[in-house]
Design goal:
Elements lengths: L1 E6 L20 H14 L6 E4 L3 H14 L3 E3 L9 H8 L6 E5 L3 H11 L3 E2 L10 E7 L2 E8 L6
Helix pairs in contact: 1-2, 3-4
Length: about 150
């Protein structure tokens, strides 16, 4: 079974935000990305939703929460600047089907750590906003990972 590691959808620019960065919301395109992410993951029967406590991550999982009826649980180990090794250890405790939403500093570090521990990464290493890593486990160990590119709108 798989776990899903989502990079939050498009948010406003950090340089144009004067308030606490953890409060920076998604922009309209990001809200549309979040809907597409929900439509992609919901049929795979997610079992739990976890998010960085940052608003943009919580908003990214809102459509999936509405679709599945699962509540989004904020978790500090998905926030920016975390000790990603602790995040990896925590991920091993999650049930299959868990969905996590995090940030651009955390996700590549987690993928690299899992690869060093033996996970095979296939395809392009994706970490753009709105991308999703599908992480496959076997007997509790992460054995494979591949990324879905972010939803794009023309």
């Amino acid at each position: 079974m798989s776990l899903f590691l989502v990079r939050h959808a498009k948010a406003g620019k950090r340089s144009q935000w004067d308030d606490d960065d953890s409060l920076r919301p998604l922009v309209a395109e990001g809200m549309r990305q979040a809907e597409v992410i929900a439509d992609s993951i919901a049929p795979l029967q997610p079992t739990a939703l976890f998010s960085s406590p940052f608003v943009r991550c919580l908003q990214t999982l809102e459509p999936l929460s509405k679709t599945t009826g699962l509540q989004v649980a904020p978790h500090d180990l998905l926030a920016e600047g975390v000790d990603f090794i602790r995040t990896v250890e925590w991920m091993h405790t999650l049930a299959d089907g868990a969905v996590m939403c995090s940030h651009g500093d955390v996700i590549p570090a987690v993928i690299d750590a899992l690869e060093r521990r033996g996970m095979e990464v296939s395809g392009f290493r994706e970490s753009r906003k709105g991308s999703v890593w599908v992480l496959d486990r076997l007997d509790g160990e992460f054995v494979g990972g591949h990324a879905w590119p972010p939803p794009r709108f023309e």
